[in-house]
What we know:
The structure is a homodimer of 311-residue chains. Chain A folds into two domains: 3-175, NAD(P)-binding Rossmann-like Domain (Rossmann fold), CATH 3.40.50; 179-309, N-(1-d-carboxylethyl)-l-norvaline Dehydrogenase, domain 2. Chain A contains 13 helices and ten strands. Chain A has helices spanning 11-22, 35-41, 63-66, 81-88, 107-115, 154-163, 177-197, 203-208, 210-233, 244-253, 261-267, 274-287, 293-305; strands at residues 3-7, 26-30, 43-47, 52-54, 58-60, 71-74, 97-100, 120-131, 136-149, 171-173. In chain A, strands 1, 2, 3, 4, 5, 6, 7, 8, 9 and 10 form a ten-stranded mixed sheet that branches. In chain A, α7 packs antiparallel against α9 (210-233). The longest helix of chain A has 24 residues, at 210-233. Chain A binds chain B through residues 194, 197-199, 201, 205, 209, 211-212, 214-215, 218-219, 293-294, 296-301, 303-305, and chain B through 194, 197-199, 201, 205, 209, 211-212, 214-215, 218-219, 293-294, 296-301, 303-305.
Amino acid sequence: xxxxxxxxxxxxxxxxxxxxxxxxxxxxxxxxxxxxxxxxxxxxxxxxxxxxxxxxxxxxxxxxxxxxxxxxxxxxxxxxxxxxxxxxxxxxxxxxxxxxxxxxxxxxxxxxxxxxxxxxxxxxxxxxxxxxxxxxxxxxxxxxxxxxxxxxxxxxxxxxxxxxxxxxxxxxxxxxxxxxxxxxxxxxxxxxxxxxxxxxxxxxxxxxxxxxxxxxxxxxxxxxxxxxxxxxxxxxxxxxxxxxxxxxxxxxxxxxxxxxxxxxxxxxxxxxxxxxxxxxxxxxxxxxxxxxxxxxxxxxxxxxxxxxxxx
Amino acid sequence: xxxxxxxxxxxxxxxxxxxxxxxxxxxxxxxxxxxxxxxxxxxxxxxxxxxxxxxxxxxxxxxxxxxxxxxxxxxxxxxxxxxxxxxxxxxxxxxxxxxxxxxxxxxxxxxxxxxxxxxxxxxxxxxxxxxxxxxxxxxxxxxxxxxxxxxxxxxxxxxxxxxxxxxxxxxxxxxxxxxxxxxxxxxxxxxxxxxxxxxxxxxxxxxxxxxxxxxxxxxxxxxxxxxxxxxxxxxxxxxxxxxxxxxxxxxxxxxxxxxxxxxxxxxxxxxxxxxxxxxxxxxxxxxxxxxxxxxxxxxxxxxxxxxxxxx
Lengths: 311, 311
């Protein structure tokens, strides 16, 4: 059993942290909004796979209180990337591994620069999770995790997957982390983007509106083109699956009515994860000369709509 | 001097109608929102070229009350196109000419089908005009009018331009009405579209934000490509000016802080002129096989953001 720190216990951090605790790990949650509620009443997960509750999880208001751990799961919002180093550092010693469970491209490279690449992993949550009232997480649909290593070291990937062995989460190794990141962007760019720019709508609205649906497909095809070009540029022989657009659309058709995280941030007036999800992929596409007019349009609009300005 | 009916006296109709009245024409305004205010206090134009007021203009609540005229100036919102025939008809007799002073593509064709093509003209207002409190029009910037004939009959165009001879409005003949319509769309599609989808912003915000500005240019280039293809398809030898994008951007840089009409509709929760400004140009581009991803994205978002649904 491992000692684990979950840094940033929003919906994703709290959910996967709770699953690790279910598996018997000693999980320490760094919490802001929900600290008091979870200390008083525990952490409740209302899941399509069955509800459960951690009655007395370890919750903390500072990372120093947690101290060094074997695994850090960093699930901060990408908008908090500049604070991430200071929040993670107190939990890191020589043997600590760090799993970045955040949206967007390029975040692992920041952590690699801060803490050394060999210990940095990226996690991709293909799931629908939202926060409810303080202390309550709604696990709405799906839930699989893909985990890769920033240097694509297969032994390290296996170690990371191993951590989840007894947790009721479907975990797949991502042999190429960059491919996995772009695969997730294939969904996040069109759906987080359109859910916000169409006025704050749920995914089903996009799927049932022929114009928005077509815009989602067009945007996703641009993400595929940009992702494949980025993989080539990084010397990878991996490519995004040729059927990925059809797969993603089918998955989203089958999805419960869902509010993408960025759409929730938008309607709540919170900073949007613009640069990690949109800005960095757009920058890479432009450098690589891949035409991405739909991504560029969405990025421009997301930046304009972001209450935090450029983040 | 001519007897003229202005059908739909929003900002554009009231402003240009007032200019025709200044020139000595007998101008009858069909008014809704401003009827009582204008009857009580007249029609006031606060213009960058000097304020003026019509103390007792002819205002009406029904077209039948106006009866047949020499010229109808139809300045309804494009969203009211289905009501336009009934509103215009009572003012039309054998000799009536009809000037369509509305935004968008394809509207003259509707009027031509209803009343016969030979009497139908299109007017393009390159101007910044907003409504103020009831009975007050703000003329903020520019003001030129281009007028064409739906059959591009030069003698008819000259007759239409002649109507404005004594009015303090710069009126230019549009030898090719289709080119003039696309020229106006070069501005309306990017700027009305981005002003709405970026959250309800003024034109200066678009011009000063490098991303939105780039999106405006990209979108405008698509409009130029679609417009030129549409001109070819209509057998016209006219093309949009090669420098039009640079011209439009320079004009907009020099423009006062401006709220495009669709942006005002958006923030006021009114129906948006989506189909005339976006939908019809997009349809033509798609039929002609012109790639217009930015226009398609804006159209999808505008339809989704339109409080009236598809209009």
